[in-house]
Amino acid sequence: MKRSITRYILATIALVVCLLNLDARNIASEADSAYNSLAYARALELYNEARDSAGASTDLYYNIANTYYRLGDLGRSVLWYERALQLDPTNDDARANLEFVNTRITDKPVDNSTLISRVYDSITSSRHPDTWAWITFILFTLTVISFAAYLITTGVIIRKTCFFGGGILLVLTVYTLSMSFTGASRASDHDKAIITAPSAQLSTSPRAASDADSQAFLLHEGTKVEIVDSVKPADPALDIWYEVKVAGNARAWINGNDIERI
């Protein structure tokens, strides 16, 4: 009797999930139609409804970013392209559109990383973190087989091949493992944020700048920052302030209402 009840509950849950996914697909399809009809405000509303029903999706985030761009909201367009890439760094359409929108914003992104770092990031982003994890597993398995063959075989040429081949496979295993961890870390990183206000005056302290001395610098929508600290007032009616770092390692404080985390 208990087993029958459990099966009934599981079947009911599965049916509800299927209905929700079907509903989300229908809403997303309706949103696509609205977007193609140039009804961007309606499309955005429907895409958000689909997101509430289906949850996170790199393709859905990509569509939301496109809609914000059509609505002239460059800051949130950059935000949602970044979110799409955080879910799936292999989304080439999102990456290409992000690069294009970044040419349209006031504060152009500055890359201070080294060539080696850029190459490493490019290779890491070429595969999903789960894919890197599977590649690591396969390489590790081949490494174990190579060293096992080295121990049980007697032929000199075979032993040398297995030993050096196993060494190369071990290096590749460590390398792909680091890529898997890096990709997974980026997917769960919420310390990056995008300025969504048209412009934001940053301060030298966690409060609104009252004079020229307390003004740090001005940033505009679409600029990417890294959150390094925050100050939350005791009064919940007051705004939270974030200390952020921008290109060149410049640091200042920004009102929490001017940014959104990726």
Write a structural description.
The structure is a single chain. By secondary structure, this protein is of the alpha+beta class. 59% of the residues lie in helices and 14% in strands. It has helices at 2-36, 40-54, 58-70, 74-87, 92-102, 115-125, 129-152, 156-187; strands spanning 192-195, 199-203, 215-220, 224-231, 241-245, 251-255, 259-261. The strands form two sheets. The protein has a five-stranded antiparallel beta sheet with strand order 6-5-4-1-7. The longest helix is centred in the first third of the chain and has 35 residues, at 2-36. It is globular. The two termini are 48 Å apart. 26% of the residues are buried. Residues 15-20 have low confidence and may be disordered.
Percent of residues in helices comes to 55-70%
* Rg over CA atoms: 25 Å
Q: How far apart are the termini?
A: 48 Å
Supply the number of helical segments: 8
- The proportion of strand residues reads 5-15%
Arrangement of strands in the largest sheet: 6-5-4-1-7
- Uncertain stretches: 15-20
How many β-strand stretches? 7
- Based on Cα principal axes, name the global outline: globular
SS content category? alpha+beta
How would you spell out the order of helices and strands? HHHHHHHHEEEEEEE
* Mean pLDDT rating: 89
Largest sheet: 5 strands, antiparallel
Which helices and strands occur, and which strands form pairs?
Blueprint: H1 2-36, H2 40-54, H3 58-70, H4 74-87, H5 92-102, H6 115-125, H7 129-152, H8 156-187, E1 192-195, E2 199-203, E3 215-220, E4 224-231, E5 241-245, E6 251-255, E7 259-261
Helix pairs in contact: 1-2, 2-3, 3-4, 4-5, 6-8, 7-8
